[in-house]
């Protein structure tokens, strides 16, 4: 029976001991990784402080020159990005300006057309009143309104409410 016990003992040493060694190696590896990450973190914090102009005392001339170059490069990139954003904004504003210019021209043409419509109505009104053959009937209270130059409000009323040949007092009344 001692040979069985010895065999089992050898089996345990072969099978279980390497796992313990693996666990120790893995633990050691994680510890080293954590140490490296901590050192990297501290280095990044120190670099950040240097970039912010803090803790510059211990730096030598070469390190200060490197820091200055990093800052100049970062400033150049920031200026380049700022210029790009400003150019994009100017392009957007130019597009808006062109759109508003087109809209303004369209509205101007529409206003001129409305003015021509009003002029045609006034001419028709005046020609009918001059020869006495007008079918337009004006209520006495409204006649003083027709003697003055009609503004845009009357233009809209005449445009929306009246058709040529319809008596004004029927639709206003």
Automatic annotation (TrEMBL):
<dbReference type="Pfam" id="PF01486">
    <property type="entry name" value="K-box"/>
</dbReference>
<feature type="domain" description="K-box">
    <location>
        <begin position="27"/>
        <end position="117"/>
    </location>
</feature>
<protein>
    <recommendedName>
        <fullName>K-box domain-containing protein</fullName>
    </recommendedName>
</protein>
<dbReference type="GO" id="GO:0005634">
    <property type="term" value="C:nucleus"/>
</dbReference>
<dbReference type="GO" id="GO:0003700">
    <property type="term" value="F:DNA-binding transcription factor activity"/>
</dbReference>
<keyword id="KW-0175">Coiled coil</keyword>
<dbReference type="InterPro" id="IPR002487">
    <property type="entry name" value="TF_Kbox"/>
</dbReference>
<dbReference type="InterPro" id="IPR050142">
    <property type="entry name" value="MADS-box/MEF2_TF"/>
</dbReference>
<feature type="coiled-coil region">
    <location>
        <begin position="61"/>
        <end position="88"/>
    </location>
</feature>
